[in-house]
Task: structure prediction
Amino acid sequence: MSSTTGFRKRAAAVLGATALIVAGGVATALPASAGPNCPSGYHCVFSASIANNNKHAFFNSDADFTNDYFDVYNRVVNDEVHAASNSSDSGYESHYYRDINYGGGLLFCVNPGSSVDSWQLTDDAVDGDGRSQGGEASSLKVRSTTSVPCF
Result:
């Protein structure tokens, strides 16, 4: 075997190994990390649809959206979330709750590399009334993979 061929095989083995995680002795591919319109590593919420640039990006959990503001129109995020995108690069799910401090019950969750748009969430067009999913989120808990079905 030539030194070039040996180098290529070693490089391929190293590159292949970096694309896998060993969990419980089983090698698994890393999850997709790019949710639409959201920077890598972040969990994003939108005031309308995902195509809308009026968003707020979270890197970690946030127990209280009342002090967070959307980028473009400077509106408070609390009870104004109508879409979400998850660009976690570590396989974390985004869990959105009705009330601050993760209270009021889970509204919806988003898998890494996925999203939920406004048309996929129930919405009664009255933000903050507690009767639907859209326009109700007040906190985000970033969680490792769960058995909860997510978007």
Q: What stands out?
A: Residues 1-32 have pLDDT under 50 and may be disordered. Strands lie at 20-23, 26-29, 43-46, 55-58, 83-86, 93-97, 106-110, 115-116, 139-143. The helical segments are 3-18. The longest strand covers residues 93-97.
